[in-house]
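Example 4.3 (complexes with small molecules)
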Amino acid sequence: MAWDFDYLIVGAGFSGLTMAERLATQMGATCLVVERRGHIGGNAYDRYDDHGVLIHAYGPHYFRTNSPRIREYLSQFTDWHPVDYKILSWTHGAYWPFPINLNTFEQLIGKPSTPEEMVATLDQWKVRIEAPTNSEDLILSQVGRRLYEQFFEGYTLKQWHRHPRELDASVCGRIPIRTNRDDRYLTEDFQALPTAGYTRLFERMLAACGNRAKILLHTDYREVMPHVNFHHMIYTGPVDEYFDHCEGRLPYRSLRFESESFTAGQLTSRASISRKKGFWQPAMQVNFPNDHAYTRIVEIKHATGQLCENSTIVREYPEDFGPGKEAYYPIPAADAATLYARYKARADAEKTTSFIGRLATYKYYNMDQIVGMALAEFEKIRRATSP
Ligand code: FAD
Ligand code: UDP
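Answer. The structure with uridine-5'-diphosphate bound is encoded below.
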């Protein structure tokens, strides 16, 4: 016996669930959402660990957006806990304010300074590069070699296993450089976390669908394909996998997360380092550009504002992608873009499948951009199907 659904949605991350919610509530369509992991939410999934600490299971997810439309859409399913995301960089035996700002500059030169002095000094340090196209040239053209080597080169090599010279300028271009004292990691107007967590938000999106959406966890969509009749597929998995890697394998970067939890008593003995009672480190995120095999340690309790006497830190180790590994990052580089263009041509020719999300469009998008992409795809489908 076969199941009948209007839409088969592959993946229950931000892109898949936004599509399910819109299709079910705005068009009355029926959707089967198939997810191969054991939970909803994709990489934005969060959960309470054994110590009662709310953690982001797949690395820190700092929600931010400049789009009132995307914020309003998600606000139907969550309240927000405003956060000024602040991080530090550990290098040369000390914590440094990061991204680079006037406080970083003062620490570097060892005396108080002004924005004017910082601008003038960076102007001397900058390497003159017209229209930088790769990440090394971009940072050299903004702050010069010393700061590039101190904060960017080692981290980028570790994270991507490629030299910054071989990565698009957009990679390191994500990090602002400031000459004032604004030390927030991000620049967007709206910066906040879902008050009750991402997973609760996703549960509410699914609940809004009522009985029009059915979800299957622990299931690869290929297993159910023979048993489902549907009109249209929304595919949010890796695009090369959809096409059986017929053009070759796209490169991805993977990660390994290693968590460690601490009780209130253990945290007390860290007080001089964490500078704040109940925490292990002095900031939500500490980056390690030049020390250790991990790139960063995240103690998300700083950002969630959770009242919990225990705390958990997560060390993030970049890894090569391969069998049994998750494809976390598409690689923003020219060779990958050339290969992806071949898959995109194939995807464009598939009229009964929509390819959306970070993996299906092979682009290093943030969560808000993914929601924006799904909302746009929904409108396209609605226009195409309205009489
Ligand atoms: P995903 O969340 O990857 O969901 C796709 C889902 O499809 C997955 O759950 C997968 O299991 C499922 N799937 C794939 N193939 C199949 C199949 N064959 N059958 C069934 N299911 C399948 N964004 C921000 O805005 N701020 C941040 O701070 C931030 N930090 C990040 C940190 C890390 C470490 C990573 C990896 C990403 C980060 N992001 C951040 C990006 C954010 O995770 C993505 O933008 C967003 O989650 C993408 O949603 P998606 O639905 O496209 O993909
Ligand atoms: N980066 C760096 N040093 C840092 C932080 C970031 O060189 O201390 C570079 C690195 O290449 C990284 C990119 O900037 O991949 C984007 O950083 P972001 O923190 O936005 O990465 P994400 O959270 O997406 O992993």
